[in-house]
Structures are given as structure tokens and as C-alpha cells.
Amino acid sequence: MLRLNVNKNLVKINLTVILLIYLTPSNLNKFFDGMPIIDKFDLFFLFIIFPIILLNLEFLKLNIAKYTIISLSIIKLILIFAPENGISHKIYFMDGKDQSFIKTYNSFWNKDYSAIQKYDWKKKENFPIDWLPSTDKILNSTNNYYYYTKEDFNNINLIFESQFLLAVYDESKLQLNLPIRNLVSFTIKDISLKKNLQLEFSSVDLQKGLYLVNLKHAQLGNNYEFSPSIISKKNNINLSLLAKNIAFLPNQKISQKNIFILNLLAKVFDFLVVIFLIIQAMKPQLQ
Question: What is the rounded average pLDDT of the residues 238-266?
Fold first, then answer.
């Protein structure tokens, strides 16, 4: 009876810890990065994998599951306090009548910005144009926050003020991947040298170091995209700043050494998440 109660308590504790790992916001890791839940993998886990786990709780008693959860918990605690990765955006309407930035649903989590970008925005639907869903035409509102049809959505033109810290590990070229006509202003400052660098044809050459990037750009019609990347001159490979986890919010205190270690831990965390899901799938063979 005592052993049965211990096993039940172990299952409850492990299940609670899994939920805390899943819901608690953290930085740099791709999986289980917490609220708000917007990533496709995390949504898949919430609505598909987690219900399966609830129907198959026995695997939480396995030692390998227990040790994996403990390891995930330790790394998660470290990543909670890691510098926040991403690109900050303040969004404005093109007419400029309203000088305050647009509040989106993302602003609930980050009140200082319209949105914090965590992944590449390749099309207009990826952008945080979610301050108000399509509303009933009967309202006949002239408020810019209202849009009624797909055509109205396609015609929304916006100004973005974007800012981020950039950690560069070797000689590289920063690519904004923006039409030069959409770029209103741009500055990039080498923090250690306190020196501004020049932009040439929507790109700039960088040495190893930390940089503060500020840009103001227009997103027009249905041709929205913001996916800055970096090209290493060693191998000429073009990689997303966000996928590589080298862009951070401008108010963060970062060092290249710490970011390297934290990124390594984040990769271990993501690997352990995959291991955990494999354990769950293989539970009958492991018993």
C-alpha cells in the first residue's frame, strides 16, 4: 500500500513539473518556451501529446523519465533567467496621427512593445496584426484598428521601429533582407568601440563583437517580410538571426561567452524534450 501511494505521488509530482516546465516562460530554447503558447510544436504538444500522456501515466514512474524531467527542470531554471532573445518592435500607422505605438495581444506579455519577434516573419500573416479581428461592417468605424475584409487586411500599411542587440562571433555580414525603399532609417553601433557603422545596400560588414541595431522600416500592402540574417565570411552560410539565437532585446545585459554557454544549454534542453517524447512513445518496450 505504501509503495502504491509513493508511485501515485511520484506520478502527480512529475506531471506537475512537466506542466510547469511547459508553461513557464524561458529564453533561447525552441521547445517548451512557455507562455504565450504560439509555437506550432508547443500547440501540438498541448492538444495531442499531453492528452496521450494523461492516458498513459505509468511511464512517469520509470527512472529514465524521472531523470529526464529532473534534467529539464534544472536547465529550465537557468534559461528562465537567461537574457531574453528576440527583436523588439513598436508598430505605428502610416498616417502618423497617433503617436503612441499600437498595442497588440503580444503587448499583454511585453507592455513596452507592440511585439517581440522570436522567429522569422516571412509573410503578412506572421506579423502581429492581431489588435482586432475582423469585425462586423455594420459598425462603420473609421478607426484604423478596424478591418473588415481580406482586402482591408491586405491594404494595411504600417511603420515598424525595431531594435535589438546582436552578438557576432566571427567576421560576418548582417543582411536586413528589406527592400531599400522600405528602409526609413538605420543605425548600428559597435558597443565596445562606441562606433557607428555604415549600411550599404541593406547590409553591413561586422567584426566579432556586440552591436546595437536600430531601424525604422515600412511594411506595405501584402508584401510584408522581416527576417534579418547573418552571413559568416568563413563559410558563406546565410543564417537567420533568430534561429541562431544571437539577437536580444536592447535592455538585456549580455556577453558573448555567456550567450555561447546558454545557447548550448538550450540545445541540450530541446534534445531532452525530444528524448522525453521518445520515452513516452516507447513506454511498453521500456517496462
Answer: 89
Domain check: are 49 and 128 in the same one?
A: no
Instruction: State the pLDDT at residue 3.
Output: 46
Is the domain of 198 the same as that of 169?
Answer: yes
Residue 110 has pLDDT above 90, yes or no: no
Write out the residue range of the structural domain in which residue 114 sits: 87-252
Rounded CA gap, 107 and 90, in Å? 10
Q: How many CB atoms lie within 10 A of CB 99?
A: 6
Same domain as 187, residue 118: yes
Asked whether 188 and 204 are in contact (CB, 8 A), the reply is yes
- Evaluate the CA torsion angle 9, 14, 19, 24 in order and state its sign: positive
Full 3-state SS string of 105-146: HHHHCCCCCCEEECCCECCHHHCCCCCCCCCCHHHCCCCCCC
- Mean pLDDT for all residues in the chain: 82
Question: What pLDDT band is residue 148 in, cutting at 50, 70 and 90?
Answer: low
pLDDT at 165: 95
User: Nearest CA to 21 among 140, 29, 230?
Assistant: 29
